[in-house]
Design goal:
Chain A is mostly helical. The first copy, chain A, has 2 domains: 59 residues, Homeodomain-like (Arc Repressor Mutant, subunit A); 139 residues, Tetracycline Repressor, domain 2 (Orthogonal Bundle). The first copy, chain A, is 75% helix and 0% strand. Chain A is built from 10 helices and no strands. In chain A, helix 1 packs across helix 2, helix 4 packs across helix 6 and helix 5 packs antiparallel against helix 10. The longest helix of chain A has 38 residues. Chains A and B meet through helix 1, helix 6, helix 7, helix 8 and helix 9 of A and helix 1, helix 6, helix 7, helix 8 and helix 9 of B. The first copy, chain A, binds a DNA duplex (18 and 18 nucleotides) through helix 1 and helix 3.
DNA sequence: GTCTATAACCGGATAGAC
DNA sequence: GTCTATCCGGTTATAGAC
């Protein structure tokens, strides 16, 4: 279990540093593993339904070890939540990469859909927390998210002024995109049930993606007709 | 607290019947009140986070009374869920009233949006349950919901054949409508935060409704160009 | 039917050995 | 750092007085 350190190392100082780094890395690995399974367990049972014992069991540890890495269940949950927010903001940068509504919206929708595919549990934890309306996320809603939305509104309104988009309320358009993409994570159970109890294949998922892209683009974008 | 019964009643039998009905009604009222506040509390805290004590307090009763009306927390929760499903199926009949995609989709979206406006808590409880992916709703997903979706697919595909709609996967279109409309219930906290911490006014909500209707219609409906 | 008091249980957190 | 044993608060459910 202890890190394997070569006995051939000439410099003791170097060996010591090696061990230090290794321990830090191991701690990091422990945290990462716990965060990963915690996201799963919180998504499956909600904050109150999830138990530290189960998180431990999924990580192959007794629950006392969880408390060694994270002082409390609440703190662990907040870390999971923060990681989801970071991920979300990362994906939302896709919006900025083009000065053309069709390209920007397509890239953004695809990025959000990929997140729903790869991190459905993160999306569920987030959805849950928002539905509860608790104070844990109020700060984020009123600062980073608010700012991001306002900056996107400026862009969308500019596209509308230029005649590249039909006049549409930017916020309600964003809500439609968030809802349509996150649905594939938050409601995956329902989608599976309606797909003969099989998860969507990659092909089906791509079809779902382009369905959303097409509807949104045809719904709001004005194309030049030369 | 006991029902007021007129002393002028001539027939004892009638009086007795009156009392019987009245008691039944009172029991019904008790159940309805509890179901109403239970939906609220379950929506706010989730199944495990909600406590029978709080449900009782919100209904002005000690928790033992809740157990008098509903044998367990689990049973009460299931009743709340069933009521939400019934409501959902009721609204979904709006889809059937027209043999024209634009009219049908508009009516359906409006009905779903009205539900999000009037019963956001029901929507949250449902969303939560689906996200958990538990067995409580599996039967419904695999029977009534599946059948409803399949029958709608037939209609949508017919509209496509007739050239009234662009070729689009019916299921993915339905998911987009569900997601976009339910979002206004499930994510109301987020929407409020992004609206200067004020709930959407009736005017704003109508604007959101027509935003969804317009995007979906322009996204999928083909209009005759005479 | 309604309410108080209590039983039985469970989960988060910690003490302390290793 | 890791794990076992334990404490303590809170929750469901019920017994039993009124």
């Amino acid at each position: 279990m202890t890190p394997v350190v070569s006995h051939h190392l000439t410099y003791l100082a170097r060996e010591k540093q090696q061990i230090t780094i290794s321990n830090a890395q191991r701690r990091q690995q422990g945290e990462d593993l716990i965060l990963k399974v915690a996201e799963e367990v919180f998504a499956k049972h909600g904050f109150h339904g999830a138990t530290v014992t189960e998180i431990g069991k999924c990580a192959g540890l007794p629950k006392a070890n969880i408390h060694y890495y994270f002082s409390s269940k609440e703190k662990l949950y907040q870390r999971v939540l923060e990681d989801v927010i970071d991920l979300w903001l990362e994906a939302s940068q896709q919006f900025e990469d083009f000065d053309d509504p069709a390209k920007s919206l397509t890239a953004y929708i695809n990025a959000k859909m990929d997140l729903s595919r790869t991190r459905p549990n993160g999306s569920k934890v987030w959805a849950n927390e928002v539905a509860r309306g608790g104070s844990r996320i109020q700060t984020h809603l009123n600062t980073r998210l608010k700012q991001w939305v306002e900056s996107r509104e400026v862009w969308i309104n500019r596209w509308i002024e230029r005649g590249q988009m039909r006049p549409v309320n930017a916020k309600y358009l964003l809500y439609m995109i968030w809802a349509s993409t996150q649905h594939y994570a938050d409601f995956d159970t329902q989608i599976i049930a309606l797909n003969n109890n099989k998860p969507l294949s990659d092909e089906q998922f791509e079809e779902a993606k382009s369905c959303i892209v097409e509807v949104i683009l045809k719904g709001v974008v004005i194309y030049d007709n030369p």
